[in-house]
């Protein structure tokens, strides 16, 4: 069974104004991730704007990614959808196209109850044919998982890991401990929220699900490997070097910033899907200036 640990890199999904995936641009983003040796790739996550893409576009993105990485890196694929039956179909599509696991977020217009979310995971795990990662991202879904609910879902057959929002540095040790106590022994609990991830790893988090790693895998891998080796001082020092990037993420949103960075780096010229707008020129200039002062190789 796939065991999700280490660094999972979450790239954008370059697409045109009609939502058609730009194949060559996506390949240019994915190839460096595989070459760097990331532990997995989180395709069609929140950074990959899964909620804005059609079923056909999402299936095409997985096909392109599977062809590009060619078995070198496991693909985790966002399969969140408003309807349970649609999430099941997306899971089946992703599996057929080469995904190793699905990232399932409880997407809904009407606020969901814990019982509804549990039943949603139970159905998708049972019928989708794809191992699932619990995708806890309250900033986008507006549903917050209690540790008890994560623990219950973690016991479902086919649920293999959890991706949770990293607590703030002062709360990392306690927050990680609570989640690890809620899930079965050995069940991987990883974290997103790049600026808080280093402390979550040091506190015992199994993985970092990283936006920045979608563009800068080697810099992020260095933090993960230091934490895995028990070298907390080095992990913190490397993380501190990236604070200017984290400040940009906090100020302008990581999604908007990485779209700007992808163009600044010459990887693609894609814009985020409307109604999300690109950052204005003065902010892009700030991002370019910040990038020039960072060591991200």
| Shape estimate | globular
Number of strands: 8
The CATH class turns out to be Alpha Beta
Stretches with pLDDT under 50, minimum 5 residues: none
Helix content: 40-55%
Q: Biggest sheet, in brief?
A: 8 strands, parallel
Reading the helices and strands in chain order gives EHEHEHEHEHHEHEHEHHHHH
Task: Briefly note the CATH topology name.
Answer: TIM Barrel
User: How many angstroms does the end-to-end distance come to?
Assistant: 32 Å
Structural class: alpha/beta
In DSSP terms (H or I, runs of 4 or more residues), the helix count works out at 13
Report the portion of residues in β strands: 5-15%
- Rounded to the nearest angstrom, the radius of gyration is 18 Å
Summarize this entry quickly.
With 297 residues, the chain is an alpha/beta fold. It has a single domain, classed as TIM Barrel (Alpha-Beta Barrel). The chain has helices spanning 23-36, 55-69, 84-97, 114-127, 138-141, 147-154, 172-182, 194-202, 217-228, 232-241, 243-252, 254-264, 281-292, and strands at residues 6-9, 40-43, 75-78, 101-104, 132-135, 159-165, 189-192, 207-210.
Topology of helices and strands:
Elements: E1 6-9, H1 23-36, E2 40-43, H2 55-69, E3 75-78, H3 84-97, E4 101-104, H4 114-127, E5 132-135, H5 138-141, H6 147-154, E6 159-165, H7 172-182, E7 189-192, H8 194-202, E8 207-210, H9 217-228, H10 232-241, H11 243-252, H12 254-264, H13 281-292
Parallel strand pairs: 1-2, 1-8, 2-3, 3-4, 4-5, 5-6, 6-7
Helix pairs in contact: 1-2, 2-3, 3-4, 6-7, 7-8, 8-10, 9-10, 11-12, 12-13
């Amino acid at each position: 069974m796939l065991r999700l640990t280490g660094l999972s890199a979450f790239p954008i999904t370059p697409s045109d104004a009609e939502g058609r995936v730009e194949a060559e641009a996506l390949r240019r983003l994915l190839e460096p991730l595989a070459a760097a040796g990331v532990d997995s790739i989180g395709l069609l996550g929140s950074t990959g704007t899964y909620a804005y893409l059609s079923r056909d576009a999402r299936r095409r993105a997985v096909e392109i990614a599977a062809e590009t990485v060619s078995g070198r890196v496991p693909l985790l694929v966002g399969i969140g959808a408003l309807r349970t039956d649609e999430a099941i179909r997306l899971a089946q599509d992703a599996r057929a196209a080469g995904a190793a696991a699905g990232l399932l977020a409880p997407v809904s217009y009407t606020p969901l109850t814990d019982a509804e979310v549990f039943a949603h995971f139970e159905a998708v795990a049972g019928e989708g044919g794809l191992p699932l990662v619990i995708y806890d991202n309250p900033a986008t879904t507006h549903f917050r998982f209690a540790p008890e609910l994560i623990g219950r879902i973690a016991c479902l057959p086919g649920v293999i890991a959890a991706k949770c929002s990293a607590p703030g540095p002062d709360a990392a040790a306690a927050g990680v401990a609570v989640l690890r106590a809620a899930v079965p022994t050995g069940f991987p609990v990883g974290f997103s929220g790049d600026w808080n991830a280093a402390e979550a790893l040091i506190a015992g988090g199994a993985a970092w699900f990283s936006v920045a790693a979608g563009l800068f895998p080697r810099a992020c891998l260095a933090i993960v490997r230091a934490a895995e080796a028990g070298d907390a001082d080095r992990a913190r020092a490397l993380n501190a070097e990236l604070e200017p990037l984290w400040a940009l993420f906090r100020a302008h949103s990581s999604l908007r910033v990485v779209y700007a960075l992808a163009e600044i780096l010459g990887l693609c010229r894609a814009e985020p899907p409307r109604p999300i707008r690109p950052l204005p020129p003065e902010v892009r200039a700030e991002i370019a200036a910040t990038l020039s002062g960072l060591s991200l190789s």
